[in-house]
Amino acid sequence: MGKFTVPGLSEKDGERVAEVLQERLSAYNDLHLTLKHIHWNVVGPNFIGVHEMIDPQVELVRSYADDVAERIAALGASPQGTPGAIEKHRTWDDYSVGRDSAQAHLAALDLVYDGLIAGNRKAISEVGELDPITEDLLIGQTGQLEKFQWFVRAHLENASGSLANSGAATERKAADKARA
């Protein structure tokens, strides 16, 4: 951490907010790589719709990573955008679905969004008392991520409102349930 942070924030609080944001930066970097993996590996009758739905998500998540990294720098810390940082901060399993159907990938992606959004909500809660500017940044990003998850879930939902991956605890199990 540098010898400064944003005006009105103590160095200690700036350091803590930067730590929380670093976890979000690593999560965003992991997500945009996962989304590209899905984009390249989706097959089947709904291929083109899912293929084209994913790219705007990739671009927006990349911009979120950039915004978060720039906020970390403004707080006086050094944002880490390396593969090692992703691994260091990862509290989830690496995406496990290879070449597969649109339904299988979307079912697994739904679980990815569950984890990412839950992590963002936790971060929002933690930084809210310390830094309302960072809280606002994360709230806006999380709202859009929840919208993307809704797009994904619309493909998985049946007429009664149940999701094809309901009850699955892992991406692989979610993919298996959606294929069944």
UniProtKB/TrEMBL annotation:
CDD domains membership: DPS (cd01043)
Gene3D superfamilies membership: 1.20.1260.10
Cited PROSITE patterns: DPS_1
Domain Ferritin/DPS: residue ranges: 20-159
InterPro entries the UniProt entry points to: DPS_DNA-bd, DPS_DNA-bd_CS, Ferritin-like, Ferritin-like_SF, Ferritin_DPS_dom
Family membership: Belongs to the Dps family.
Name this protein carries in UniProt: DNA starvation/stationary phase protection protein
Organism expressing this protein natively: Rhodococcus zopfii
